[in-house]
Every structure is written in structure tokens, then in C-alpha cells.
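fyi for ur records
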Amino acid sequence: MKAFEFSGSPRAAGAAHGETFRKSIHELANIRLELTLGKTDFKSVAEIVSLGEKHLPLLQAASPDLYEEFCAMAEAADIGKGELVVLNHYTDLRDLSRSTLYDDQGCSAVFLPGTPPVLGQTWDMHGSAAPYVEAMRFAVDGAPRCLTFSLTGCMGMAGINEHGVAVTINNLNTPTTTLGLIWPALVRMMLACETAKQAKVLLERIGVGSGHYYQISDRNDFYGIEALAGQQRCITYWSQGGRRELTYPSAACHTNHCLSPEQAELEVLPQESTTFVRWDALQERLQKTQIEPSPEAMWELLSDRRLSMLISEELPHKSATCGGLVFDWTGELPAMRICRGPLTGQTGVLLNV
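which gave:
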């Protein structure tokens, strides 16, 4: 893998993104439209697209620059803006339907405190998304340079910026009726912050349309936040030489069920969910052993076959590990190790911001 470079004005960056991935953007948008139609109570693709378009004023109000980038990407890719919202906002948009039990959700997220700390996650989704996983480096006028783990046509699902602020996210199944900011745009907004604390405050101010768990960190501070529509809980935190509240003495982790009792009352877990299998695997590894806070140790942990799930050839849309990432603060520049597909058996590619 390599990092695709998008730079200049928001419109120039968006246009380059759309032109580079025009074919694959259409392919992934069609996959996600079909999955949404097949697994929800929406009546037609037109209804889904119309709902997607309703999210655009929220993006324009929250970040005119990201709205400009988004519109330029849609125009360059020759795709409707509503379809591009579905590609980006797939998990949250599905939650606006009354039928909200999906097996294509996942991600195992881990933080290890240290000097510097380490942050990483698997990215689990419908296995058919794996071919579209890419690394993208953005140097957009007026914003810090950032490196993202993303999908073609997606503004960014996780990433780290030149200041060392890193964000990862995994899904929580919390049915909602709230239109929210397109969540990859929110990730990019957080990656425009200079500190993890600023990104946390931004998340609290903007809010979410549907449930996600955010890991937000820089070299000095970490926050683990279960963010649901209308309410958020910071369930874990850590500061260099200061306060800490972690899942285990030497780690914070999360899969796809709420750990806050108040949040758990609002979630509905599908029968096929692997969240507790992966939680038990993390508990076995993290509760008994203090894992060295190094990028190499984090990569090895996330490569555990119970966490890094194979893609099924027979059931291509079944939940699987479509990629993985580990953030590295040990060098002069912040970096991200990334791979496409399950981490098991891969060394990944190390990319600097």
C-alpha cells in the first residue's frame, strides 16, 4: 500500500480524490446502497439517497471547507451527493431505519500507555469493503497535514495529524432517529485539532448521529469515549504522569458493546455479533500480561486470529477484518502502520504524516 496525496484548496483536494477513485467510488457506493436496501426497512434506493442528501446542510454548517471538498469529490467522481453520503455515513444512516441488526460491524480498539503511548485497531466491516481500503494523506489549505485510514470516496475513518493527534472509531449498534454530521467528516474535523483534548471538546460540541466509540490520543493524553446521539461518556482516560482510568492496569480496550451501563440500555446487539468473542480474547491477553507499549507489540496483539477475522469467499458481505492500523509516535514525524485485510501474517506498511 501507499498513501495517495491530496493537497491544495478543499476543492482541489476533493476533485483529485474523486478523479483518482472514480470507478471504485461507484462500485463501493453501489455495494452499500444494496446492503442498506437489503438489510433495512427502507423501501427504495431513492428513499435512501434522499435521506443521505438531508445530511448535507449539517456538513455545510459544521465545516464549509469539508463541504466544499465533499462536493468537489462528488462532481469529479460523477456521483450524486446523496450516494456519496451513503458511502461515507453507511453505519449511521442504517441506524435511522427501524431494522437495525447487522452482522457487518466490528473493530477491536486498544490503547497502551507509555512514553510515548500506542494506539491501534482492527477495522471490521462487510468483507466486500476490503478492496477499497486505502491510505490517504491530506495537505489541505488551512488545516494541519494528516494521514488517514480510509475507503475510496470516504473522507477518512481514522488518522493522525502533524501535531500527533490520532483518532480511531468503532461502531456501536444504537438505533436512532437523529440526523448527524457525516462521521468521516467529523473524524477529519478532529484531525484538524492541535491536541487530543481539543479533539475531545470538539466531539462533545458537535455530537453524533449514531453510536460510536472514539479513541482520541496524542503523545500526552488519551480519551476513550462512547458517543451516542444526545449523550457521551468518557469511560477511559490517561495522561502522562497524571490521572488515569483504564480498562486494565496497562491498557484500555473496546469492541462493539457499550461498557457504560447507561449507554448499554440504548443498544441492540445482533445475535451474530462477535463483540464478546473479541472482548474475551482481549481480556485474556491484557488482563494477565502487561504488553510492552510498542507499535510492534500492538501489531502482534491485533494480529491474534480471534481479533483479526478472515474474509469469507462464500459470504463476501459477512463481517471480517478489512484492514488494520497502529499509530507510532516514536519517530520524528507521527506515523501509521497500515494493512488491507486481516493483520494476521502481514507486517503492514509504515507511513509518515
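The mean pLDDT is 94. thats all i got for now
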